[in-house]
Batch of 2 targets.
Target 1
Amino acid sequence: AQSVTQLGSHVSVSEGALVLLRCNYSSSVPPYLFWYVQYPNQGLQLLLKYTTGATLVKGINGFEAEFKKSETSFHLTKPSAHMSDAAEYFCAVSEWGSYIPTFGRGTSLIVHP
Amino acid sequence: DAEITQSPRHKITETGRQVTLACHQTWNHNNMFWYRQDLGHGLRLIHYSYGVHDTNKGEVSDGYSVSRSNTEDLPLTLESAASSQTSVYFCASSNRASSEGVGELFFGEGSRLTVL
């Protein structure tokens, strides 16, 4: 069975600092990888996804993630944090043929002025 | 614009009552899902459906049921509400896989249920 590990339930950064949210997965076959963002009192929305092709994926709001097969990782980064980035971030993994993603527990991003 | 809507957004009920949470999507997606979100547990899958008249149990299905009579709707019913079912419930939908792989989930805004 797949598993998704998000290291750190909370990550705190200063405004303008680099954002790094970690995601590692276990999968026996190359997976499809997703990052979702959840703002307070809202549903999740897609930030970016990796299916095939280029391993560096760009998403909305300046976020990007890199699929590293050898490290089974899909870490999310943003060069400069903004106050509006404060939210809960979820990493998710699907295998081909499965429509049901496995979600990580989520990481709460806190941005300090 | 296509969307997925949940109702009610907030509900307070009593233990033992039957409760139904509605989910309606206009994406024309085949796949629909119900999750609950609780602190410390992340998102947990309750039930899902791959199409009309198809329903399947997720990891936390006890005490919940769904039915799929059309493409657009997947109502979630709590047969006899319990305090342990106090949670935020999210409905989601996705399309069939394409040459680009499995589609992403589109989520509703959530329904906050309190069982007293």
Target 2
Amino acid sequence: KAGVTQTPRYLIKTRGQQVTLSCSPISGHRSVSWYQQTPGQGLQFLFEYFSETQRNKGNFPGRFSGRQFSNSRSEMNVSTLELGDSALYLCASSLDGTRTEAFFGQGTRLTVV
Amino acid sequence: GEDVEQSLFLSVREGDSSVINCTYTDSSSTYLYWYKQEPGAGLQLLTYIFSNMDMKQDQRLTVLLNKKDKHLSLRIADTQTGDSAIYFCAERMWANDYKLSFGAGTTVTVRA
């Protein structure tokens, strides 16, 4: 059974640009959550999607957005990149996003220069 | 992660037991998780415990939950060099809470 797949693994962008990250959940899982990991702030929740609907959102500016497709794959987009957006972005997959386990992908390492 | 607290570092000798501690502040937490992160990697789910349980054992891992003190611990028996990593405690506060709140992580170093 394939795990959670995040692409790309590494990304370097310039300030002001935008970026799109992709996450393919485990087959049969319908919930996808996104987290940002930085040395200073640790792991912070961005948002969660289930059946193409955003159910919960963390305290991030509107530059951070996401969506989920009918096959449960999810993308997150960051517009007008800032240096502080440099982080490891992790995606978590679970059956329904509530009581069950959440499995994480390897993450996308975004560096903004 | 301000609702979940962990000590930052733990050094243990190979073959000894490691105990990683975590405290959480919300008594309504339903599920509590332990994740492991190795350098350059994502988070690996080690185990989780439901709030109506006191203990859960899975091979070398033992999770203890003290709801009264809001204290969670992870014991790793016979610690090996491959156990060197950052360990995160996380809580899901209620059944329909769609996010996990993480602690800052405990860096475990296994010395020979």
